[in-house]
Amino acid sequence: MAEKTGTKTPRERYRSQVRAEIKERAWEQIATAGASALSLNAIAKQMGMSGPALYRYFAGRDELITELIRDAYRSLADTFRAASASGADVAALAHALRGWALDDPQRYFLVYGTPVPGYHAPDDVTAIASEIMATLLDACAALPPGDFATPFATHLEGHRQWADGHPAPPAALHRALAFWTRLHGVLSLELAGHFTGMGFDPPLLFAAELEDLSAH
Amino acid sequence: MAEKTGTKTPRERYRSQVRAEIKERAWEQIATAGASALSLNAIAKQMGMSGPALYRYFAGRDELITELIRDAYRSLADTFRAASASGADVAALAHALRGWALDDPQRYFLVYGTPVPGYHAPDDVTAIASEIMATLLDACAALPPGDFATPFATHLEGHRQWADGHPAPPAALHRALAFWTRLHGVLSLELAGHFTGMGFDPPLLFAAELEDLSAH
DNA sequence: CTGATGAGTTACAACTTCTAACGAACGCAA
DNA sequence: TTGCGTTCGTTAGAAGTTGTAACTCATCAG
């Protein structure tokens, strides 16, 4: 969302402003109808200009969506970094994640949802993903090994490309992966509405999983 | 996939056959390009007939996709029931789930992936979902409470609409939910390619989560 | 054999993304 | 201030899409 509005020529300022407004409208559409329903034409009409004008700002629908994905990743990374900067432990990180997800479920799904078979994220996006994992690893490294000194942790000791320069011990790596996959499991099913009508309280399930992750 | 080809009039036989072929082509398209890229026109062309002909068989794109979702749910329910019938424990159920998911990742995402904001699954689909959970509950009820005799399990004791007539004790309910959410967490991230390039072996993470679910 | 039912057709409307060509506005520089 | 080039927005149009309407023709039942 943070379009660079730094010192620039008037034309570049205008350009950035229009790009930002396009993305904002796009987010609105995505939030209400999902990413697959995003229409460049509809955005243009909303902004009072004709369809092809948008192609001055984005090469096409795909580039716009990629840009939104990038922003979504950055938004989560920023949320994590902010939490971490104010001394967040894994529990606080979990609640930051949950808050971020509930804030805009479709944004969450843009990052962690159903992938388009052919699509490959650009390198800078995967770099942001690494930053997110690094923040998580920091928090996990602050805990004793506990129940995560597992055989799989031993496997991770020799297969830690994703934690390349990170000093976290194997158990922390396993805990971080469990944190990620378990909370994603609860969150994605909750946001997708798979718990509706089951009767229990989804936040309590989230809390129970978090408890299990933090305690042992 | 199992279109009823029972005793019918010739016209109904033909109709069922064509419907089945449409769905088959649809599955191919979905597997290679995702559900959002499904095109009725393309299917018609593949089958050697003109676009609007398909509307004799499906009211529209949405109805076709809903039908595919229904089939996907049924397929998973059948897989679970077959596994359960041959005396599967939770571990065997987990491997059945994993096999089913890897068999056609887009089919998995059709069931557990990103939802369309407005969409509400028809009642018979939620009924199949309940059947799946019931099979899972059976397997979980066969295990001692273990670590799943939790505060959240107590909450479930009073909020078990989803396990209405099922005799499973609270700890089994909690275990079933953990089974579902944790394995879905690992599977969905794996199928979406979020583990690629991280270095570790996704099946081992799945196994580790399963181990944690079965042991305690 | 006849007549209703249903399948497939073409034609069309209303969308979509996206390209091409044009005009007009804008900002910079002489 | 006077150009002049860059960039923006326009319209026109191609090639798709979903979906409706009307028509033809085969098929099946009585």
From TrEMBL, chains A, B:
GO molecular function terms attached to this record: DNA-binding transcription factor activity; transcription cis-regulatory region binding
Pfam families named among the record's database cross-references: TetR_C_33, TetR_N
Coiled-coil region(s): none
N-terminal signal peptide: none
Keywords attached to this entry: DNA-binding, Transcription, Transcription regulation
HTH tetR-type domain residues: 16-76
SUPFAM superfamilies from the UniProt entry: Homeodomain-like, Tetracyclin repressor-like, C-terminal domain
DNA-binding region coordinates: 39-58
Keyword Ligase attached: no
Protein name: TetR family transcriptional regulator
Organism: Streptomyces aurantiogriseus
